[in-house]
Amino acid sequence: MTNHQLSDEEETEMLEQILSTATAETFRNFVCEEISLQADESVLSVGCGPGFEAAVLAQQVGEGGSVTGIDVNEDVLAAARNRCSNLSQVSFQHGDVTELPVTDESYDLVIAKQVLQFVDDVDSALEELFRVLKPGGRIAVVESARESEVMHSSDPEQMRRANEVYRTVRGDRNFGTQLLSLLPDAGFTVEDVVSRATVQREINEQVERGIEVQRGFLESSDAFDDSEIEAWEQDLRDLDEANQFLFCGITLLYISRKPE
Ligand SMILES: C[S@@+](CC[C@H](N)C(=O)[O-])C[C@H]1O[C@@H](n2cnc3c(N)ncnc32)[C@H](O)[C@@H]1O
After folding, report:
1. Which residue from 118, 144, 196 has its CB within 8 A of the most atoms of ligand 1, so it is best to mutate?
2. For a Cys staple, 41 with which of 94, 108, 122, 187, CB 3.0–4.6 Å?
């Protein structure tokens, strides 16, 4: 489970909603095109979620290839199996990215899209991803650059303070630039870093989750009292009512290789 406040079932429902939006689909297609999969390749999708990603990857490798999805959430896996039931080249397994239930040097490509931010021991995860990749194989890691995230506010100074709290608390989960060191430390050669900006113009399900997470951080901080948190959130909702809500953030795709 990626969020301690949600059950596995609730998390699955939330991922279904978020990952089925047009924004998520556009971004997923962008990532899958950038990684240039070839027909017949074998792919491992860690933290695969409810199978949207596996379905696109399956089209790229064709029936001669294979896509294995691994996730810690059994409910997510049930949704993934259902979504990909007509794709014979796709299979799913329960497992943790820090202890993968697969043999060494098995895959041409490993993808970890928006997963590592939820993993406590990222070094072990990257060690595992290195182990299961064939020599010369590629790894695609996708994470948000938290420092790039901005939201429009009627009170810019309050938003600046809120962002400071968010970025401080989320500091250890900001992979925007850290992956440039973490990947080589795990033995990979970083070949490309590709960026994509996401703009949200309304408080949809995905933004709602972001506000909830950020409010939780504000509540756990001394920098904001309850009335300030309420004002911060109400301002976002008032702007949304007035059709003036705006979120913008950059997501980075790191494409790296395990040496031959
Ligand atoms: C934000 S979703 C991303 C899903 C998918 N990669 C995508 O982008 O469509 C994160 C997923 O990672 C899974 N996850 C979190 N921690 C994990 C771990 N330690 N090992 C395997 N999966 C994990 C969650 O259950 C969830 O399905």
Report:
1. 118
2. 108
